[in-house]
C-alpha cells in the first residue's frame, strides 16, 4: 500500500504520507478565501502609506458656488446667512492662515455606564482663528485623543464666525474693543462683554481671555455668572457673546440710501396725479 501511494504521486513528508512539505502551506487551511499568506501583507502595505491629497469633491450647493469662484469671500456667505456644512469651504478661504492658529483648550475624559461596564471617551475643546477677525470653537468626543482633536478642529471650522470690533470713546487708530455690551449664555453660565478704554487690557478669567485674544480684541471688561468651573459651558457662552457683536448695527454698517425722483423719471406715474389732486384741493380751499 505504501508503494502504491508513492506510485500515485502522493507527497510523503516527515509527518507521514499525505502531509507533504509543511513549508508549502504558506496561508494554511488550503483555500478558504484568504489565498496565500503573503497576500494580506501586500494589501496592507499598499494602503499603509500616506494618503495623497485628493481633489475636493463638493457635496452642497454652497460648495459648488465656492469651487466655481462665484462666491469670493466668507463675508458674502455671512451676508446671506448661508449654512456652512463643509470644512473645505473654510480651508479654501482661510486655509493658509488657520494652520498654526489651533489652540486646544482642554482634553477631559468622560464616562458612560453601560451593561458591560464603564465606557471612557475623551472630549476635546479646540479654538481656531485667523489674523483677520474670525474665530471658531469646536467640541468633539471620541475614543482616541487624536480623533477627538481632529473632529473638534473640523467642527471649529464649521462654527467660525466674524468678530465685529469697535471703539471706546474717540475713533482713533484701529478698533480695539467690542462695539457694545453683548451677552452670551450656555447652561447656567452667563458672560457679559463690556467695552473698555485703550490700554485696559482684557479683564477676564483665563478661558474668556484666551478666546478674546484669539478674536483680536485688545481691551474688554467681562462679567460672568453661573457655574464657570464647567469649562465647556464657559467657553460656549464666551463664543456666543463674541458671535453677537454683529447683532448691533453701528452707523458704519448702515447701508447708504440713494433717493430717486420717480416723478421726473416717469411723468405718467401715480405720484404726478396725487400731486395735482392735492394742488387743486388746496387751491379750492
UniProtKB/TrEMBL annotation:
Start-end of Gly residues biased regions: 15-48
Domain S5 DRBM, chain residue ranges per copy: 100-163
Keywords: Ribonucleoprotein, Ribosomal protein
GO terms under biological process: translation
GO terms, molecular function: RNA binding; structural constituent of ribosome
GO-annotated cellular components: cytosolic small ribosomal subunit
Biased composition (Low complexity): 1-13
A Pfam family the protein falls into: Ribosomal_S5
Ranges where the record places region Disordered: 1-49
Stated family: Belongs to the universal ribosomal protein uS5 family.
NCBIfam families with a match to the protein in the record: uS5_euk_arch
Quaternary organization: Component of the small ribosomal subunit. Interacts with zinc finger protein ZNF277 (via zinc-finger domains); the interaction is direct; the interaction is extra-ribosomal. Interaction with ZNF277 competes with the binding of RPS2 to protein arginine methyltransferase PRMT3.
Protein name: Small ribosomal subunit protein uS5
Species assigned in the record: Aotus nancymaae (Ma's night monkey)
